[in-house]
């Protein structure tokens, strides 16, 4: 049992939350994580109201949170308002300025969680009233930036201790087993956010071929790139790239994104078709470096229980050793 400020704040058994992964993290995964003692999140992503409503209908009476890509809300924030009416346990904003949404989230009673990639953005999130900061390192699957988890987390922990100690901190990026969880707590986090490891679960909405490709891969086989955003015509700011599994498509286009922007529309159609059919030569699996530590697709509850029991052993063993040396 690992009790931290996060388990106490959220009223959960384990200091683990699942990432709000667009498309992959639906109501089934979110509910499974919450049922197992963490807090599960629906990946509201680009804010498709129908998809979000459908996923909420799957959670039953489990408490879950919902995430949004912040810059998308600037175009239309109705999906956030509709989600707040469903009384989520938390709202998770990432990639953009959270300030315009802070008041309504806080008034709703949901925990206000901001994922950040730099110290500067962590400070801004604290200033606008985030209850919980997620410090995301570049090892992470999906969109992110360039800082490493192992330095970003303690820097943010030190800043929080100085400016607003009641703000909680969650580490993200590269955490997929008990070692990652134990290390994150040692770095000063109150808990962890797990994306890729839960993406590789039975409940995640992921094509079986993509799961297979991720299991066969090591961390070396991943890449931060913008090819996915270019091919999907998504208007992401240049500072963000997305970590994916390399494949024939990224080998061809990663260093030629200007050419990709001008490519025949058939290239984009081919990528979308490959995504739908699970052709992993063309469509990239969205995973982090931790894919190299994943060897099976398991139920989310089993993933969570193993992670927590490994971390508990690591922490109690190292404590015993320290006492012996003491
Ligand atoms: C498939 C996938 C989709 C993701 N989609 C989102 C998203 O829609 N919104 C978001 O804030 N983060 C998203 N992320 C990033 C996660 O929030 C988190 O930072 C990351 O998964 C943590 O690193 P890890 O993958 O090594 O566990 C995604 C990650 C993955 C793997």
Write the layout of secondary structure elements.
Layout: H1 5-10, E1 16-18, H2 27-35, E2 40-43, H3 49-56, E3 64-69, H4 70-73, H5 78-84, E4 90-94, H6 99-108, E5 111-116, H7 119-127, E6 132-136, E7 142-144, H8 149-163, E8 168-172, H9 178-186, E9 191-194, H10 196-199, H11 208-216, E10 222-225, H12 227-231, E11 241-245, H13 248-253, H14 257-261, H15 265-277, H16 300-325
Parallel strand pairs: 1-9, 2-3, 3-4, 4-5, 5-6, 6-8, 8-9
Antiparallel strand pairs: 7-11, 10-11
Bound molecules: flavin mononucleotide.
**Helix proportion range:** 40-55%
Specify the structural class. alpha/beta
* Global mean pLDDT: 97
* Cα shape: globular
How many beta-strand elements? 11
List the bound ligands: flavin mononucleotide
Order of helices and strands: HEHEHEHHEHEHEEHEHEHHEHEHHHH
**Highest CATH level, the class of the largest domain:** Alpha Beta
Estimated radius of gyration:
19 Å
Q: Major sheet: order of its strands?
A: 1-9-8-6-5-4-3-2
* Count of discrete domains: 2
User: What is the CATH topology of the largest domain?
Assistant: TIM Barrel
Number of helices: 16
Provide the β-strand percentage band: 15-25%
Distance between the termini: 24 Å
CATH architecture call of the largest domain? Alpha-Beta Barrel
Give start-end ranges of low-pLDDT stretches.
none
Write down the oligomeric state.
single chain
């Amino acid at each position: 049992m690992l009790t931290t400020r996060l388990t106490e704040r959220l009223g959960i058994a384990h200091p683990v939350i699942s990432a709000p992964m667009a498309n992959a993290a639906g109501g089934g995964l979110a509910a499974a994580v919450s049922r197992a003692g963490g807090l599960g999140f629906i990946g509201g992503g680009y804010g498709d109201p129908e998809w979000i409503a459908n996923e909420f209908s799957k959670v039953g009476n489990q408490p879950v949170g919902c995430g949004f890509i912040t810059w998308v809300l600037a175009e239309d924030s109705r999906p956030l308002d509709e989600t707040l009416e469903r009384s989520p346990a938390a709202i998770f904003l990432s990639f953009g300025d959270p300030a315009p949404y802070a008041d309504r989230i806080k008034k709703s009673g949901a925990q206000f969680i901001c994922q950040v990639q730099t110290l500067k953005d962590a400070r801004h999130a604290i200033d606008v009233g985030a209850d919980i900061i997620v410090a995301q390192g570049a090892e992470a699957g999906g969109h992110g930036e360039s800082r490493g988890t192992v330095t970003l987390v303690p820097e943010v922990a030190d800043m929080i201790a100085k400016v607003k100690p009641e703000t909680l901190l969650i580490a993200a990026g590269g955490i997929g087993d008990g070692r990652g969880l134990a290390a994150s707590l040692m770095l000063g986090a109150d808990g962890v956010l797990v994306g890729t490891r839960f993406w590789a679960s039975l409940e995640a909405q992921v094509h079986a071929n993509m799961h297979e490709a991720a299991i066969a891969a090591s961390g070396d086989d991943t890449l931060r790139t913008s090819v996915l955003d270019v091919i999907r015509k998504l208007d992401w700011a240049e500072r963000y790239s997305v970590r994916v599994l390399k494949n024939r498509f990224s080998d061809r286009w990663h260093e030629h994104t200007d050419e990709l922007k001008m490519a025949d529309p058939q290239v984009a159609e081919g990528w979308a078709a490959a995504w739908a059919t699970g052709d992993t030569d063309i469509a990239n699996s969205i995973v982090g470096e931790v894919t190299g530590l994943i060897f099976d697709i398991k139920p989310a509850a089993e993933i969570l229980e193993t992670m927590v029991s490994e971390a508990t052993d690591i922490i109690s063993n190292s404590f015993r050793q320290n006492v012996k040396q003491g």
